[in-house]
Amino acid sequence: MMYLDLLVCLVLVLSGVAAMNTRNLVSAAVMVGVVSLLVSYLFLRMGAPDVAMTEASIGAGLSTIIFLIAIRRTEEEER
Amino acid sequence: MNAVTPATLYLVTAILLILIGLAGVLVRRNILKMVLGFALADTGINLLIATLGSNPERTAPILDKPELLANPSLVVDPIPQALVLTAIVIGLGVTALMLAYVIRLYALRQSLDIRDFGRLKW
Amino acid sequence: MVIDPILLVAVPLGVAFLLPLFSKLGRTAATAVQGLTIVFTALVAVSWLPGLLDGSLAPANILTGGYDAPIAINLHFGLTEAVLCLLASLTALGSLSYLSVREDEHTIGRSGLLQLLIMTGAFGLIMTRDLFNLFVFLEIASIGTYALVAFGKEETSLEAGFKYMLTGAVASIFLLIGIAFLYKLTGTLNIDDMVGRMPPAATAGLATVILFLLMGMAIELKLLPVNGPALDLYDGADPGVMALLVGTVVNGVLFAFWKIALLVPGTWDTAIMTLGMVTFVGSNLLAVAQDRPRRMLGYSSSAQIGLLVFLVPLVQQGTVALAGAGLLLINHTLAKSGLLWLSGKHAGETRREWTGAFAGSVVMRTALIIFILAITGLPPFPGFWGKWQVLSDLMAGGYGWWALPLLIGSLLEFVYYYGWYRYVRTPATSNVSARPLGGASDLGGVVAFALAALVFGVWLMRDLPVMGDRVLVFLTGVGLVLTLLRRLPRVVLAATATAALGLAAWIMATGGGFDLTTPSGLFHLLIIGAGLLVSIAGLAGSSGTGERFHGLFLIMIASLLLLVSTDNLLLFFVAWEVMTWTSYLVVTSGRLGAKPGQLYMVFSGAAGFLLLGGFMLAIGAGHTTITGLGLLTGSTAAWTWGLLVTGFLGKSAAWGLHIWAPGAYSEAPDLFTPFLSGVISKIPMFGIAMVAFRIAAGNLPAIGAVDLTWLLALIGGLTAFGLTLAAVFQEDAKKLLAYSSVGQVGYIVVGLAILTPLGWTAAMFHVVHHLLFKGLLFLAIAGVIMRTGTRTMYEMGGLIKRMPVSFISVLIGIIALSGVPPLAGFTGKWLLYQALLAKGWLFILVLMMFSSVVAFIYMFRLIHSVFLGQLKPRHRDIKEAPLPLVISEVLMIAGVMALAVFPQLLLNPLNAMMHTQFGLDALRIDGTVLTTMSGHTLNATGMMVLVLVMFVAMFLVLLLVSPPMRKIRQLDIGFAGEVPPPAEEIHFASRFAQPYERAWAPFLKPRATNFWRSVTENTGGVIEAVRKIYSGNGQTYVLYPVLLVVVFALLGLGR
Amino acid sequence: MKQILSVVLLLAMGWFLVGLVPLGQPTEPGRVAQHYIDNGIDENRGANLVTSVIVNYRGFDTLGEVTVLFLSVAGAGFVLRRRDGLVRHEHRPSSEILQTGARMLFAPIVVFGAYIFVHGHLSPGGGFQGGAVIASAVMLLLLADRSHHLPHGLMHWLESMAGFGYVMAGVAGLVVAGSFLSNQGVLPLGTWNRLFSAGIIPIIYILVGLKVGTELSSLLDVMIDTGRPARQEGGRS
């Protein structure tokens, strides 16, 4: 289990870096959503199902959606 | 390497997320990207708080089984979880407001570059 | 009956949730519901106040969730919370009325909700005792702020709001890190519980945790240098929104910081105090360079918050009384909200665009100056009492050095606030910018807060003995009424003032207030007498526009009477500061008085702070009375004496500090200048004699071989010499008299510095005499200016036939001034020279004699250029000065003559006075014969007779021998086909003293002016460089907090 | 240049943060947490201790949290209130299948959301999670049919009443037990692990769920809607 955790953390950090590095805002927003989703897995692992549910629905779900809406109403590429 | 506990792993990850997020805020000039950076840092903070209450030897603070009810000391501290819940919702609120600002600022200048929004200074 | 304070949060929240439904009923309904809610919250706070104040009610501990802390979240409601909540309610109420008339079609029904929730967030911040709950309410207040700042001016407010959000988000991150780890360390979130469970300060990592917590708060508090976005908000958002924030969120965050500071180990105290003080001084310094009043208010807010942050550790460790900090906070809330509301009522963006603002509105002008006086910490407003308390406590607690930056920062506030007000007082050339915005319906908050500041400040004085003094209360009351009713006809104002002063004089005379053998009695007579003369002359009215100073004049006289009679350092300083601001306002009411007025105020402010510094040293040594100053010894005595004397010299415009004087004297209203020169400039002399010299001269160490009193005399001598010289080259009659006045004060300084009975007699004699003859000169010249409409001497001439009384007044005045027999000027100089001789200060003696000679040059011009020579054609129909002015002049002539013929009338009481002061007599007086202790004699009356005989004889001789006079036509000048140069170049009186200019050149360099200019320029350069840190880039603003964290961590603070 | 400085500073800050890692290792729960673990069931009868903490012990926080959400939705609406200059998107009608699918899915998702917050005191989840689920159903509807208009009147009413109800539930505690948001004596606490138990906790969590659901829906509506012309002009004529 520890190794799975390690892997998740690694992916999580890499997604974060990718989110900040990509020029495409949509993929960046999705990456941030992925980070949230992975973090919610970690919450589940540490005995916090309530938090995991919230993080998944609000952090990964709704936040990403409003980011996408905002991107759609402005620009999709970082100039 | 046996010193690396799950808590250490989570905390370091959380700190990295905070730093990556703030780096996005400080280095990327696109205001939408800056908001994304804050969202990332917020996630990191949430992970950090939750980790502070975690204990791999205990289970979730839901006493829905008689054996847990008999021995409540098997569950983890519920307070940090409650705090994280609140923090997540507040984070969403702040993000929503920031995005509303981004949309309006874009309508104002047709640009998302932070440097275009510095008329007031000194 | 008290109301459960939990309803402070519950009721507005419930209403806020329902508000979207209410707004369907219409805008008025929603606003009414909101207004009622805020009134309710104010009532909750008010219901607790009396009980909490007199101690009959214990502070409430409010539980939520049914359990006590730390199990559940609890709130605390004591006096501090009640006051803060009341302030928040009142500001919210004012803002509601202010913003509701400014709503456009897009904001209707929406901004109200945000306002209500911002207020509620502040209540929560103020009351909660739970660390995380504090964070939640902080977010409520912040998010409300982020949204509401989008109210109003589109572009700027959005930019500012977004940048503000960015730094706010960083603050949240820092705070959460701090809160989470503190919970981990203590196992609780309740602040009071946490205090007892904090690990030892040396615990590894604790310093970092505290650092994040503090830096999060620093961002929320807008301390230097993380206050950039806040400044942008003041600049870009609607001022009404900012006013709301000042009263709610800003105070709430401050109190939240107070609670968080409870958790911070004492090792951080110095760091917090430094950060606060750096913010206070730095923000004030940067504000000086700010040309946009609203942004300037932002800097000022940062500064005030910095000051309060500085005080937090001191109050918590018990060094400074909570009341001191509380008064500063209340004062700031009232004044800053008021200023912001007012700033939104004028369209000006830059200070220049504020020229002549609110000229049409007595209410707004009065409110504006009340707020400015309050925020610059002048009495009687609450900030003054707060500052005094804080300073005294700092001195008593051994933190005396911190008073220095505090005073410097306060002086900077003078510079920019009165710099702004200078533009307001400058008459507008066009009427466009002077139109107030938004009508009068939103002025409720402004008027209420101005009244609150005044009434609360006066209420704080209730226990001071001054409130029992009938004359003072009466004069101040009448003065206040006249100030507010200053639109009444001028004659009515002057008559009321005269009557009030007459009544005051009568009361004082029957009460023995004019005992000339005491310094107070002598000054009482001078103040009331000169005041009456000015008021009588005021009956004439004047051509000037702004001369409606009678109300302020009465307040000023009350303060002067208090100043010369009190033994209490606090009361002396109160009176001093009231004198300063009343005289400043009168000076600026002159037609061109705004600019010199600013300079006057800044120098007076500096003088005031020097005095304050001196008093604080004495208070730190345990003395609160003027008499107590005599017990000071050692270096405290020397420093106190030095600060006091420098302050007094600054106010009296001694050489080097004189650059404000000529402008202020000459641009003050014509009728006020005599008082300024005759009385106000003598008050510092009273101070030097009766306050500074309470410190025994024997206790003053010498600097090297130089005696401090000799140094003082030298400054006096240089003043007399330098300013007399400058007077010679003036073309402007009033300016000439102004320089002359300041120069004459130099004589008094010398007399006092001699510190012998004879020297002091000379000084006091000159005080009285100078008041009489200089008042006479200024009044006569005022009459001439009133009739001719000019102050330039070469534009006058030949007025002797048209204005004979004025001519005689000036003639007598200059004879008295020059010190030639037979008038009392000679007696005065004789006394001074005798004293100098007896003391052996020959260099000073030479300097004084030389100045006297130079004075002839300018005095001659006054009579020659103005009254003799050809009458200008346009002055052909000129009349004598108006009767009230003539009456005043005749009264003063009588005084001058009386002093000349019977100097013993004054010298006898002075002799008695010196006997009390020194235990020695100054003179032996037999009838009219004066004999000094060293045996020199002078017979004033005899001399008068002698001079008269000689004069008549010479006159007859001249009449017999001189050829008959020949009439010359005025334009009897021929030109050989050349274009005539401008009249001023050929007029005989123009540049009259030019030949001397080259001879005196080395002495005439404007050294003082150049010095002060280079000071301002250099400071300005530094400010310009520093304020570039506010680059306007939101990203940079986010960087600063990170930078600050790293720097502080690297410094190892708190470990 | 500034970028490099930023990164260096962040690394330095990170270094100090990593210094805190030893403080974050697992420890026994603190005094307060131990009280919740030991007495939580006795005092509130809710099996889910997190819910007890959120709704009862730290209920005041949660009220604030709901307010934050309410405030940010209102704030976003306030900031986006002016329609000038905003980008407008063409509303391409989505495919028939998507629209029908969305309508069919709507009800089950809402019911699922309601289930989550009704059982908040028994199992993981509660008002916030349930509310978010409901909002996702609304979002589905909005995305599938951009011209779909939410029943704003009903939503506003529901939102206001849920919020007001929450405050009233708190006041009920104040009146009955003398403490705002108290769970003692307002409603019977019932038996552990039953649906009808835990006093007013489920009531409050239902109100929170309704409020959060409607608020998040309005948020999505505000964010999506403002691109369109004002309702009066673009109405269904």
Explain how this protein is built.
- The complex is a heterotetramer of chains A (79), B (122), C (1055) and D (237).
- By secondary structure, chain A is mostly helical.
- Chain A has one domain (2-72).
- Chain A has 3 helices and no strands.
- The longest helix of chain A is centred in the last third of the chain and has 24 residues, at 49-72.
- Chain B has a single domain (6-57, 74-116), classed as Helix Hairpins (Orthogonal Bundle).
- Chain B has 122 residues and is mostly helical.
- Chain B is built from 4 helices and no strands.
- In chain B, 70% of the residues are buried.
- The mean pLDDT of chain B is 90.
- The longest helix of chain B is centred in the last third of the chain and has 31 residues, at 79-109.
- In chain B, helix 1 (6-27) packs antiparallel against helix 2 (31-52) and helix 2 (31-52) packs antiparallel against helix 4 (79-109).
- Chain C has 1055 residues and is an all-alpha fold.
- In chain C, 68% of the residues lie in helices and 2% in strands.
- Chain C is built from 40 helices and 5 strands.
- Chain C has a 3-stranded antiparallel sheet with strand order 3-4-5.
- In chain C, helix 30 (757-788) runs antiparallel to helix 31 (804-818).
- Chain C is elongated, with a radius of gyration of 32 Å.
- Chain D has one domain (34-74, 95-225).
- Chain D has 8 helices and no strands.
- Chains A and D meet through helix 3 of A and helix 6 and helix 8 of D.
Helix/strand order of chain D? HHHHHHHH
Structural class by secondary-structure content of chain D: mainly alpha
Mean pLDDT of chain A: 91
Q: Calculate the mean pLDDT score of chain D and round it.
A: 84
Number of strands of chain A: 0
The assembly state of the depicted protein chains is heterotetramer
Task: Outline the low-pLDDT stretches of chain D.
Answer: 227-237
The major beta sheet of chain D can be summarized as: none
Category from helices, strands and their pairing of chain A: mainly alpha
- Count of DSSP helices of chain D? 8
Shape of chain D: globular
Distance between the termini of chain D: 58 Å
| Percent helix of chain D | 55-70%
Summarize the structure.
Chain A has three helices and no strands.
Topology:
The complex is a heterotetramer of chains A (79), B (122), C (1055) and D (237).
Chain A: H1 2-21, H2 25-45, H3 49-72
Helix pairs in contact in A: 1-2, 2-3
Chain C: H1 7-22, H2 27-54, E1 60-63, E2 74-77, H3 79-100, H4 111-127, H5 131-148, H6 154-186, H7 191-197, H8 206-221, H9 228-236, H10 239-261, H11 269-288, H12 293-316, H13 322-343, H14 362-375, H15 382-396, H16 403-425, H17 444-459, H18 470-484, H19 490-510, H20 519-538, H21 550-565, H22 569-588, H23 594-620, H24 634-651, H25 661-667, H26 673-678, H27 683-690, H28 708-728, H29 733-754, H30 757-788, H31 804-818, H32 824-839, H33 842-867, H34 883-901, H35 904-918, E3 923-926, E4 929-932, E5 937-939, H36 940-961, H37 983-986, H38 994-1004, H39 1007-1026, H40 1034-1051
Antiparallel strand pairs in C: 1-2, 3-4, 4-5
Helix pairs in contact in C: 1-2, 1-4, 2-3, 3-4, 3-10, 3-13, 4-5, 4-10, 5-6, 5-10, 6-8, 6-9, 6-40, 8-10, 8-40, 9-12, 10-12, 10-13, 11-12, 11-16, 12-13, 12-16, 13-14, 13-15, 13-17, 14-17, 15-17, 15-23, 16-23, 18-19, 18-21, 19-20, 19-21, 20-21, 20-34, 21-22, 22-23, 23-24, 23-25, 24-27, ...
Chain D: H1 2-18, H2 31-44, H3 49-57, H4 59-79, H5 96-118, H6 127-144, H7 152-177, H8 201-225
Helix pairs in contact in D: 2-3, 3-4, 4-8, 5-6, 5-8, 6-8, 7-8
